[in-house]
Hints:
By secondary structure, the chain is of the alpha/beta class. Helix content is 37%, strand content 16%.
Amino acid sequence: MVHSFKNNGYYYLYDVESGNLFNVDKACFDVFNGEESNYSQKEVDEIKAEINELTQNGLLNAKNENNFSGEKSLTIKSVCLHISHDCNLRCKYCFADEGAYHGKRENMPFNVALKAIDFLIENSKNLKNLEVDFFGGEPLINFDVLKKTVEYAKEKADLAGKNIKFTTTTNGILLSKEVSDYLNQTMDNVVLSLDGRKKVHDYARPTANGKGSFDIILDKFKYFRSIRGNNSYFIRGTFTHDNTDFCEDVLFMADNFDQVSVEPVVLPDSHKMALKNEDLPVLFEQYEKLAKKYVDRRKNKESWFSFFHYNVDLLNGPCLKKRVMGCGAGCSYIAVTPDGKIYPCHQFAGEKDYCLGNVFNGVLDNRLRQLFSKSNMFTKDACANCWARYHCSGGCSANALHFNGDIDKPYELACQLIKKRLECALFVYDREHNLPQN
């Protein structure tokens, strides 16, 4: 399968099975797509001969020889600790019901956090490298338990001969210099929530009293960046129907931070901030506009930044198994809520039909886990003929369930955005690697 596309005035052929990307001229692009009327027979024959040569050498129209079959490992590697089901913001698009997950507002007791760490280590079998993500709500509301949990986890990991990497996601309201210094010293990754320009951010992410949060957090985030050095962090934003011009928000963030990720909101169609199919043309234009500016900015050290979705490696990307299996939700990855219940991931928290068990008895619902274990790119009919399948791995199981009632039926609007982002990422790859034009 070959995907042909245009991006920012350039023409491309991308071979799905081999992963080869070709920057071609307009004539080659047109002839490949059957539009031959504007070219002489000699030109058409020459172009077709080149295409045939690439095909014979396995560089284009490569055969699908991936007869992969298998199930995801049930050995647990990562746990998302819902350290707090409370929040000091009232984000208008929050999937977690403003931090409460459609339940009561509560913090995770220390004994639950300890049990979760014990559960992770006991169920990680022979894995050496494990991960703990402190999530919410707002994790810093329960900062004392977070600190005690890190200390306990390190001690338990050392005794078991394992290593745990920690991540915290925060909205920044409680991010004092003392807290920033602690996170900088202990966290392998920190995710800072910012939606972009002041007007956009304040509208979407007000405080509990209805006021904007932008002025409260921006300098705190800048301080954290100033002490972070080369360690991993992300400024992470969300765009909605109300700021489809999200390129400006990304560039605003890039003016202040060098590691940026901005995601499309996922909301029921009835929500006023939900993205709609009629938004797609504008969003596609924004992604292309951002890709061009991204390439230009990365030429200079002063303006260089990394945009998560434009980072693609065609030579050293993930192995086939990882590409096919995709997300480890319910298998190698679990989420634990303040009451000790275990769910497939943070987006399933509170959904009783998807409760896998609890950390106190350690017994998991193997029927549910098998459902997630067997789900992969090849079990999703919509992925069979999708050119982007090896890069998105079938998409998010939670989104598929919430929109289509089946973890094997991907959320179509998200698919469209993923494919556009990948086209832009391939454009960036070409511009930064100076691929020869064919």
